[in-house]
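queue> pop job 88
queue> type: inverse folding (structure -> sequence)
queue> payload:
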């Protein structure tokens, strides 16, 4: 029986959540309209070149880009989404007011000017934690807004949308810090974060939903990931940190008839990975976190135990799956066995997101040491 390594989980959450809020306490609200600085190096290929022919994932040659914002102690990209290898978006946190989103056009990375102080339309952006899209003209991202009040601050959830022309804020009275977003189609999306409340976009209208949890204001809820099989069945993983110090992990299932139900819960020996959920195109549900598990006959089967806590799992199909996480963990599953990309193993690196494509893949993460910088792997 394998017990959950709570140290790794808390370490992962600290880096992404607590470290961000530390910088909020010391970062000035004065904006500096500066361009991001980009540097790059190459692994297993000549500088500035990539292979002309597509390789299998385990034979990819990798190029590494490093992104950081001037005067920033933290440029931590947390999520990635792409409509194609020539249209890639990263979202995350920056200790400066800008540098929350980057875009790759197939040749270079550039800072996306979201803030109203740099020509965008959105004010008080804190962090962007997740991004999800349906086409190059229909992309969503979620995070939080920060409001400074003297030496303190408050926050609200943030939802933004790109229509092919510009990014605009969707004005929801959302609870603090939205962390995940998923949708079956452009007219059916769900998002949630640091509360039991969920926000459901259906046919052009946002509605508030709620998980069946009995919690007080002293308890903390963290919704980590949402995935699903079309509009017929949804899955969600969350933790509740109760005021009495008890920690419960929950796996929820939603159907149009039964709505949200607790399908499983645990305190130790959690059989699912709670960092991220992914449903393959064949309808198979996978989870990643302290382990990689596959849902089979209403139970979980462990497929892989990583060296570091995993923050993302995604694939092209059931025979082509990537996972990534702490300690520079990056691995590939071909439906039969696992392959670890040991060249990236590094206790100073946390990988947070993956975007696989036909014949290539992008992996995003950040360094733990100060100043924290974003790392992007591009393999093909």
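queue> result:
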């Amino acid at each position: 029986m394998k017990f959950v390594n709570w140290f790794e989980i808390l370490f992962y959450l600290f880096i992404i959540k607590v470290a961000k809020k530390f910088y909020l306490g010391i970062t000035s609200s004065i904006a500096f309209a500066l361009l991001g600085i980009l540097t790059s190096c190459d692994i297993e290929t000549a500088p500035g070149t990539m292979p002309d022919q597509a390789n299998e994932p385990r034979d990819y040659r990798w190029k590494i880009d490093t992104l950081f914002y001037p005067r920033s102690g933290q440029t931590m990209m947390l999520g990635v989404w792409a409509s194609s290898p020539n249209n890639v978006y990263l979202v995350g946190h920056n200790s400066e007011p800008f540098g929350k989103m980057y875009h790759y056009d197939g040749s270079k990375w550039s800072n996306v000017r979201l803030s109203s102080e740099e020509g965008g339309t959105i004010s008080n952006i804190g962090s962007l934690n997740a991004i999800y899209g349906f086409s190059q003209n229909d992309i969503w991202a979620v995070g939080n807004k920060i409001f400074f009040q003297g030496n303190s601050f408050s926050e609200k959830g943030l939802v933004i949308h790109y229509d092919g022309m510009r990014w605009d804020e969707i004005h929801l009275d959302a609870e603090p810090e939205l962390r995940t977003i998923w949708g079956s189609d452009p007219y059916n999306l769900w998002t949630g974060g640091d509360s039991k409340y969920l926000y459901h976009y259906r046919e052009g209208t946002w509605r508030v939903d709620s998980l069946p949890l009995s919690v007080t204001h002293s308890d903390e809820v963290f919704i980590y990931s949402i995935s699903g099989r079309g509009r017929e069945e949804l899955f969600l993983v969350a933790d509740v940190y109760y005021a009495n110090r008890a920690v419960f992990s929950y796996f929820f299932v939603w159907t149009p008839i039964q709505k949200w139900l607790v399908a499983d819960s645990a305190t130790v020996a959690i059989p699912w990975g709670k960092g991220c959920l992914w449903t393959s195109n064949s309808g198979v549900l996978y989870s990643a976190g302290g382990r990689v598990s596959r849902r089979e006959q209403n139970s979980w089967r462990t497929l892989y135990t990583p060296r570091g806590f995993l923050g993302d799992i995604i694939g092209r199909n059931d025979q082509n799956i990537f996972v990534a996480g702490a300690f520079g963990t990056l691995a590939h599953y071909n439906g039969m066995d696992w392959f670890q990309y040991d060249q990236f193993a590094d206790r100073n690196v946390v990988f947070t997101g993956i975007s696989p494509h036909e014949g290539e893949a992008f992996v995003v993460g950040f360094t733990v040491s100060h100043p924290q910088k974003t790392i992007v792997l591009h393999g093909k």
